[in-house]
Recover the amino acids of this structure.
């Protein structure tokens, strides 16, 4: 699959999220649980997501991933317990769109990292995935995932 890579400037977007550590093989279950906890808290507040869910990856240690999963909100909201007031990806990012199963995202990451190196961009070390459609109603081959790396200024 060919990927169209580009640089975008994203505005600050308030969010509610949950940060966790997990081995890669438990990531789908752990993120699913985190999204559920955050979404339930949003309902408790009478709020709704202002966009699709996102995950931030703060390291690449597949045995101990440091990730944050959440939803953008229309305004800053207070955290509670494990749910934190945070922000969705903001600032300058390198980005590409992946179509297909989440398990096949590696080529998108490789293409984006190669494009960044070829075009003189340096990442901060934080990667993001934004899930643009619902895996409960979308066939795996039609899933859309925005893959992004935060860029150094």
């Amino acid at each position: 699959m060919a990927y169209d890579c580009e640089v975008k400037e994203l505005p600050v977007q308030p969010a509610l999220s949950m940060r966790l550590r997990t081995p890669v093989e438990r990531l789908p279950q752990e993120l699913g649980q985190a999204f559920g906890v955050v979404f339930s808290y949003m309902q408790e507040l009478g709020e709704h997501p202002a966009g699709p869910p996102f995950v931030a990856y703060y390291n690449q240690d597949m045995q101990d991933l440091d990730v944050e999963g959440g939803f953008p909100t229309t305004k800053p909201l207070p955290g509670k317990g494990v749910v934190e007031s945070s922000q969705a990806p903001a600032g300058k990012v390198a980005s590409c769109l992946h179509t297909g199963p989440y398990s096949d995202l590696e080529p998108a990451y490789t293409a984006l990292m190669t494009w960044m190196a070829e075009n003189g961009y340096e990442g901060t070390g934080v990667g993001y995935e934004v899930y643009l459609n619902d895996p409960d109603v979308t066939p795996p081959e039609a899933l859309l995932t925005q893959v992004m790396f935060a860029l150094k200024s």
